[in-house]
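Supplementary Methods, section 5.1.

A reviewer requested that the exact input to the structure prediction be made available. We therefore reproduce it here, unchanged from the version used in the analyses.
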Amino acid sequence: MKVIRGVLLDIDGTLVQSNDAHARSWVQALAEHGINVPYAEVRQRIGKGGDKLLPEVAGIDSESDQGKKLSQRRKEIFLKDYLPLLTPCPGARALLARMKQQGLKLAVASSAKNEELHQLLRVCGADEVIDTKTSSDDVENSKPDPDTVSAALDKVGLPADQVVFLGDTPYDVEAGVRAGVRVVAVRCGGWSDADLAGAAAVYQDPGDLLAHYASSPLAP
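The structure derived from this sequence is encoded token-by-token as follows.
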């Protein structure tokens, strides 16, 4: 096994407890436009970008006028009603500090939009330690396509076998595997071990990963 020199970081559900908030924002935005979609249908797709989610739950092209209006309204709801209430996932700040102390290069690989991502990074303190970031605004296709992970890998400037991708959804696992990067997953985003099959290791949350750091894929 190659020595790990960098970590790619998902944010939503991995370092910030925001997956439910994203789902509720979508449900509310859709309802305001007369489109009633069950919360569960949306929730199980959080982790994908809106370019994937909207067609799947409502049959709407995200690049259509209607799709753009829905996406804009969803963002407004999320930023105003939910983001101010968000908290870090357990152990997120301590894990970030441990990885930074080790000298690992840290790059964000998120399906969030840039405006939201900037604020999400502040919630968990990632804004103080990351070296670079990639959002869904920077790539053509969101997760589970590998574009976001591949772009972050290019920015961090390390070979894929010297990097681990930390995520929380099946879409993170698929994107990482397709990009040739080992994935370490956490369950705090709401998925089970079975959902996260393909990850090199699975932990309850960032704090659990930190507690088992010495035996994890991140160990120096």
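The chain has two domains: 6-17+87-215, 19-84. These observations are discussed further in the main text.
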